[in-house]
Amino acid sequence: MSLLEEIAKRRTFGIISHPDAGKTTLTEKLLLFGGAIQEAGAVKSNKIKKGATSDFMEIERQRGISVATSVLAFIYKDKKINILDTPGHKDFAEDTFRTLTAVDSVIVVIDVAKGVEAQTEKLVEVCRMRNIPMIVFINKMDREGKDAFDLLDEVEQKLGLTVTPLSFPIGMGYNFKGIYNVWEKNINLFSEESKQHITETIAFDDVNHPDLEKHIGEEAAETLREELELVYEVYPEFNQQEYLDGQLQPVFFGSALNNFGVRELLDCFVDIAPNPRPKESDTRIVDPQEKKFTGFVFKIHANMDPKHRDRLAFIKIVSGIFKRNTPYLHVRNNKKLKFSSPNAFFADKKEIVDESYPGDIVGLHDTGNFKIGDTLTEGEVMNYRGIPSFSPEHFRYINNADPLKSKQLYKGIDQLMDEGVAQLFTLELNGRKVIGTVGALQYEVIQYRLEHEYGAKCTYENLNVHKACWVDAEDESNEEYKEFKRVKQKFLAKDKQGQLVFFADSMFTLQMTQQKYPTVKLHFTSEF
Ligand code: GDP
């Protein structure tokens, strides 16, 4: 098969949702269609369990699951579908943000009763900023929930989307009778049988046909006709280009648990979802069809076995063909590396592959060369963009608790930061190290892993910081900037890349500082 055909076959996407909306359940059902797993319950939930026996065990359990579910690939209707796992827990939001740089589209799962929840809002915002094509799946239609139109309104308002339903529910909860598939123009009836098997749908080009009453009863038929009329009136017609440009989001309804409405979603998805898209680097836009291989690291996973220090770096292939045992340029280190056992991932196994194509993810064994965001090429010097660091929300000093192990401590911190577990800042004034994280859980992860993987001990000390902002001076020789640096010296630090960061202890300080030094720009992400 040619490179072009391989690219056309691939659909690489992520499922995003607030915890409990049904991401794991939906993933599992999607895999069933690919024949990738035999029975339900095969996809492990990557949720943080409340009340787990110990936090350490929970962290280890999480890490184990995280590597097992990083990429789940399967073939459906001759398409190679790669699902990239995105943790839902807010403490791991940064992980999810980074994974979103490697997907070509997403499916957003929303609980019909809970509607748009906090985590969904954050994740969708990131997708919206990047114009990632999104399909919305309203889940749990077998339960009582919000009215479909109200929910569509909520999705538009809270998520800033423009939606168009491609399926529409017939009733809900106790009265859930099925869905009308606007996309294929047919009806799928929800019944005891449909909970066990994928049932035949009933073609229904014209909902005004009197047969509709036979299938769903008079009352439901009348309501459906009225509602569909409203759907056609109120919502824009589906337009694939607008969807691909991130301007229009199709919506499906269903029940993942009952595997209902999922086929409709998947069939439409393989039809309309984008294959691997061109990607911007610091020098140019790279097209997947280019002959030469390029790719970037979006995730690093440390070995679970402390005796083996090697890690797995997950590379998204952007262009060309990635080949085993071929030297590639690690651009940041200006070093050629080759890989004898690149891993490809499937839902039920991982295996060593000789060749991989754009859209695919390969796992490369790494002894410490990679950090998140690194680019690999056949020799071209360029770096892929789009993995900013976000301003952390928790800050603590980190202290060495075992002076004999300081080397181990610094190596450990260095590697954990490369993995993207947290961010390290060094205070300008006294060189003290500060760890910034998105969630409090990360401090436990770091402490535990430093001890078990590097043999080092650390303690933390609280630090009152509200936000860390990246400093961007219009002109470094300007007096205002010099004064800013002098006055705020105590609150300045450098991040790992050597970029200057301002620690604001409150929102008020932040505002005052910005007012006082208008030419000094303060940013909440490292990329500006
Ligand atoms: P995640 O946190 O988004 O991965 O959510 P899960 O897939 O783990 O689902 C959370 C809970 O909702 C589980 O108890 C599921 O069994 C349940 N659930 C998922 N889909 C449905 C559905 O369609 N209907 C009902 N009633 N429950 C569902």
Automatic annotation (TrEMBL):
<dbReference type="InterPro" id="IPR032090">
    <property type="entry name" value="RF3_C"/>
</dbReference>
<dbReference type="InterPro" id="IPR038467">
    <property type="entry name" value="RF3_dom_3_sf"/>
</dbReference>
<dbReference type="Pfam" id="PF00009">
    <property type="entry name" value="GTP_EFTU"/>
</dbReference>
<dbReference type="InterPro" id="IPR035647">
    <property type="entry name" value="EFG_III/V"/>
</dbReference>
<dbReference type="InterPro" id="IPR000795">
    <property type="entry name" value="T_Tr_GTP-bd_dom"/>
</dbReference>
<feature type="domain" description="Tr-type G">
    <location>
        <begin position="8"/>
        <end position="277"/>
    </location>
</feature>
<dbReference type="InterPro" id="IPR027417">
    <property type="entry name" value="P-loop_NTPase"/>
</dbReference>
<keyword id="KW-0547">Nucleotide-binding</keyword>
<keyword id="KW-0648">Protein biosynthesis</keyword>
<dbReference type="Pfam" id="PF22042">
    <property type="entry name" value="EF-G_D2"/>
</dbReference>
<feature type="binding site">
    <location>
        <begin position="17"/>
        <end position="24"/>
    </location>
    <ligand>
        <name>GTP</name>
    </ligand>
</feature>
<dbReference type="InterPro" id="IPR041732">
    <property type="entry name" value="RF3_GTP-bd"/>
</dbReference>
<keyword id="KW-0342">GTP-binding</keyword>
<dbReference type="Pfam" id="PF16658">
    <property type="entry name" value="RF3_C"/>
</dbReference>
<dbReference type="InterPro" id="IPR031157">
    <property type="entry name" value="G_TR_CS"/>
</dbReference>
<keyword id="KW-0963">Cytoplasm</keyword>
<dbReference type="InterPro" id="IPR009000">
    <property type="entry name" value="Transl_B-barrel_sf"/>
</dbReference>
<protein>
    <recommendedName>
        <fullName>Peptide chain release factor 3</fullName>
    </recommendedName>
</protein>
<feature type="binding site">
    <location>
        <begin position="139"/>
        <end position="142"/>
    </location>
    <ligand>
        <name>GTP</name>
    </ligand>
</feature>
<comment type="function">
    <text>Increases the formation of ribosomal termination complexes and stimulates activities of RF-1 and RF-2. It binds guanine nucleotides and has strong preference for UGA stop codons. It may interact directly with the ribosome. The stimulation of RF-1 and RF-2 is significantly reduced by GTP and GDP, but not by GMP.</text>
</comment>
<comment type="similarity">
    <text>Belongs to the TRAFAC class translation factor GTPase superfamily. Classic translation factor GTPase family. PrfC subfamily.</text>
</comment>
<dbReference type="InterPro" id="IPR005225">
    <property type="entry name" value="Small_GTP-bd"/>
</dbReference>
<feature type="binding site">
    <location>
        <begin position="85"/>
        <end position="89"/>
    </location>
    <ligand>
        <name>GTP</name>
    </ligand>
</feature>
<dbReference type="InterPro" id="IPR004548">
    <property type="entry name" value="PrfC"/>
</dbReference>
<dbReference type="InterPro" id="IPR053905">
    <property type="entry name" value="EF-G-like_DII"/>
</dbReference>
